[in-house]
Structures are given as C-alpha cells and as structure tokens.
Input
Amino acid sequence: MDELGAALGPDQAEVGRIFREESGRCVAALIRLFGDIDIAEDAVQEAFAVALAKWPGDGLPPNPGGWLTTTARNRAIDRLRRESRGRELLREAAVLSSDEHDPGGAEETDTVEDDRLRLIFTCCHPALSTEAQVALTLRLLGGLSTRDVARSFLVAEQTMAVRLVRAKRKIKAARIPYRVPADHELPDRLRPVLTVVYLVYTAGLDGPAEPGLCPEAIRLARILATLMPDEPEVAGLLALLLLTESRRASRTRQDGTLVLLADQDRTRWDRALIAEGQGIVRSCISRNQPGPYQLQAAVNAVHADAPTAGQTEWPQILTLYDQLLAIAPTPVVALNRAIAVGEVYGPAAALALVEELDLDNYHRFHATRADLLRRVGRDGEAADAYHRAAEMAPTDAERDFLQRGGRAARGSQA
Amino acid sequence: MAKYLLSVHSVDGEVREPMTDEEMQQSFKQVMAFQEEMKSAGVWVFGGRLTEPATATVVRMSAGQVLTTDGPFAESREHLGGFYIIQAEDLDAALGWASRVTDLIGQPIEVRPFWDEPGA
Output
C-alpha cells in the first residue's frame, strides 16, 4: 500500500504547492457560504491537514480545488453543528439554502471566480489601512501562513498576527461588505486593489527574504486581469509586473549586489515574459485609455525592446513620462522623467529639473542627483549625494551599490 | 442591518468662516431636508447636535456614593459636537450616508459600528 501510494500520490511539498494554488479560491467560496472569515480559514486549514494525510497515499483527487472546498465545507458544518451558536449561524448562512449547489461541482467555476474578486475587494477596502490590506490579501488570497506574511514585511510574527486579527475583527464588526463594487464605485475601489498587488510585488523584489512574493503578485494580477478584462489599468499592472519580472534574475549579482538596467546581461532577460508583457501593452495602446500602470508598463516595454542599453529609444520613453506626469503629477514621476531627459538632452538639463524637486527624504532622488553630478564632472558634490543616498537606502544591495558609487566619485575627484 | 454612530468631532479654537444669517438658514434647511431623507429611507435612528462641552456634568461612583462633578469627562481639545445613529445594510451604505453629512457640514465624520447584540 505504502509503495503503491508513493507511486500514486504527490509528496508533501507538492500537496503544499497545490494548496497554495487553491486556497484563495477555497477561502473565498467558504466566506460566501458561511459569511465568516475565521470559520472559512479554519475549515480550509483543516481540509489542508486532511489532504496532507490522504493525498500522498491515495493520489490526487480529479479536482483538488473542488475536493478541498467540499472537505472544508463539510468540516465547517460538522464543527458548527456541535455548538449552539454555530447551529444558529448555520440557519442564517447561505450554506443550507436550497438553491446552493455543491461547491465541488463543475458549474461552480464562475461563482468561485467571483468569490475571489469579492474577497480581494473586501481585503483592500479603503476602510482598512494599507498594511492591513496587504497582509489580508496575502493571507486570505495568497494562502501564505501568518509567519510567511510577517517575514515578508520584516515584522514579528506576533505583530502580524495581531494586525490580521484586528483587520478581520473590523471587517466583521463594521460589516465591510463581501461584494464586487458597482461600476460607478470601481475607479475608487480598484485603486487600492492595484496598489496592494503592486506592493506585494515590490516587497518581493526588494526583500530577498521572500522572493515568492513576486510570482504571487503576478498570480494575483493574472486573476484580476481574467476577472476584469475590461479594466485597462488591471491589464497595465499585469504587463508592468511581467516586464519587471523578466529582468528580476539579472537585477542582482551572485553576491546580492545590484546591477543597473544599463549594465544588465540582456541575454538573461526572460523573453517569454517580455513577449507576454509587450502583447498586453500593445492591446492597451490600441484601447487608448492610458493610466499610470499602463504607461509605466509601456516604458518597460521600450526598455525590453532595446538589444543594448545604448540602443534604448529614450525619446519614446520621455514621451511616455510626459504623459504620465500629466496624469500623475508626483515628484517621483518627475524624477523618472528627468532621468529620461538626461538621456535625451544630457545630464545638465536633467540636473536642472532634479534640483527643483522636493524629494529630500527619498534615496533615489539623491542617487539620481549623484549620478547626474558625476556626469557633469562635479565629483565632490556627487560623492556627498551618493553618501546621502546610501544612508537612506532601504536594502543592503542598494546601500552597497551607492557606497561604491560614492567611493568612485571621491576617487575621480582626487 | 447594523447600527452605526456617525459622529462629528470639533476641535476647540478651530475658527470656521463665520456664516451670514442667510447662509445659516440655508444650511439649517439643508440639514433638515437631509434628516427627512434619512427618515424616509428607513436609515434614521436618532441624532442631534450637542451643546458645548462646558455644559456637561459627570456622575461617578465614589466610595459607594454617587459623586456629581462639573465638566466633560475628559479635558481635551477635541470633543463630540453631535451625532447621528443610523441603521444600514453594511459599511459601504453607512459610508455613503456619512459622505453626505461631511459634504453638508464641512467637518470630518467618524463612522463606528455598534456592537452587534444577539437578538437585538
């Protein structure tokens, strides 16, 4: 039996992977059925434990996601029936209403997809803090354990546990609804959802502790793009993440130090991701409803097109930043636009723009300024600016990189 | 349905643009019309504007006796200026009404759910 089981079933790591893949769907479906996040989470965890015990021996069920949802639902009902408060809840819950079909059934798919969309809008409700939004999304939709969510954001597990409990408590007490917002609410409500997915991605990019966050963010972006095919900014976000992801492997050296875009080995860029990202950018352009994510994706698509850094179409990038600055006139966008100006019109023109910006607390402002000062030959000031930038750098890799820049500038000065 | 407290918090010394009599009447009319709208929508539970905190009195138990003292409970620059209690389907509905209030009176509104009493 054991030998046969070993041949038939997935190993524990594989069960874990399938669970991560399916858990968002299961949790979302159970929240709809029971109207309670804690009940849903506990039941899905129980179903996972059953899967870990059974699947390696019995083999995978034909529809693992459906199996997990059905098992979790049955476990939840069993548990609730044992408690009087639970029996009351069961009477109110959608789970026993006659029109409810079996969540394992094939015809469920559409509702289940909608469930995940409902859940992400609940997790990213503007009544919750951004920190709570990100944590809830990773926990409930991404299926990450509280420990993994905590590690991703460099906070203690206990701190993260408290944050999650408070957020769930608020959802319940304040009745944050579990529904997809109406069309007229969508622009306001979609913004935090996209921000959360983007933050999940950048946390993975900047925090070597949890590189799994990058694929997780892309998975979430894909879900959103599938569920909201008519929202150009959702497509734009997916394209931006795919194009950024195509360069992730060449972004750091073996020793963890950072490699600038211009110095990256472009043969290591992932061509499949680039092709997919550029395809989405092209369809966004033909739709002609530009937004911040689409424009940033377009900038990255232009970079991806250049066989060498020297062949980058900087005038095209500058045009895109002009558009972006018109839609989103933030100092950070102005800084990025200045970098493009530097490539098209030279470092002196860019430096004049950068000196106007009020970004003293942003390390990339000082890093950009340092690079421009170095290029116009003001090495002493460049070294100081590198120093400022290094002091503020959020990651070790960036700090190393900036300190090396500072030493080089000091060197040329001497 | 859940009940929510929509409260207006005033800050002492925060000077607002003084209103003319006409503006004041206009604003009063708008608030009255809004309250009527909440009533006919079945949202209204109770509400009103409070007098200034200096008019408050506190009673508390002290050594088994009720002790009455002058003044608001907490000496603070911020105090409750008025409130509505409404019943709404969910937070989005409550926030919708709160948005109307803040638009009407130009002050921030805190929206806070009541404890869900079983059987209430």
